[in-house]
Amino acid sequence: MDNLKIDIKFTINLNDAFKRIPDLEAGEIAKVKVSDNLYLEVESFEKKGLLINNDFVQINDNSAKAARTVYHTTAGSIGRLKNLLGKTVVTLKAYGVFERNGKISKPIDAYGTYSAVVWNVTNKKAIKGKAAYNAYVRNTFTGKLNIGTDKVHMTLESFKYSCTTYCNAKGKTSSSWKH
User: Fold this and answer.
1) How does pLDDT run across 111-145, given as a tens digit for each residue?
2) 27 φψ region: left (φ > 0), alpha (ψ -120 to 50), beta (else)
3) Are 132 and 105 in contact (CB under 8 A)?
């Protein structure tokens, strides 16, 4: 029964920490305390480029714009659960790849990666929204902290979180995490 209380308190604290993370634009980082020995760090990112003759060319905001150019943007967010020593316990990375032309954004890929110490984590699903001015992708992750062996174990902690990444037709990106 004590393990159940620990699981519920940890899950509540982690859910509360994710709720306190604001929607982040590319390059922004937020940190929130989860417990006395853990904190959540979330960072959003993007990489922009042009697709010219099927070759990806990285660009910056000052690059010249060619007529009838298709831009590619890879954007997403990284969630890290860290201990007080700064060591990462769980990392969740959500990615979205978009094609955009200034009028419409089309999600062409959605995927997630993860790493964990002791935790059993999976990228449960990755979905792509429809082409729109402000398109999105969503990646969902689950995790369990088990004790015991594969056949005989007990789950002490668990989580399920989704990251939604948006990219509009002009290339502005943002990401948000929900449970």
Assistant:
1) 999 999 888 899 989 999 999 999 999 999 998 88
2) left
3) yes
DSSP at 132? B
Distances (CA, A) of 105 to 48, 137, 171: 13, 11, 8
Q: What are phi and psi of 10, to 5 degrees?
A: -60, -45
Q: Which residue has the higher pLDDT, 63 or 110?
A: 110
Distance CA 174, CA 168 (A): 9
Q: What are 75-93's pLDDT values in tens digits? A: 999 999 999 888 999 999 9
Give, in degrees to the nearest 5, the angle at Cα 106 between 105 and 111: 120
Tell me the two tokens of residue 168. 């509009």
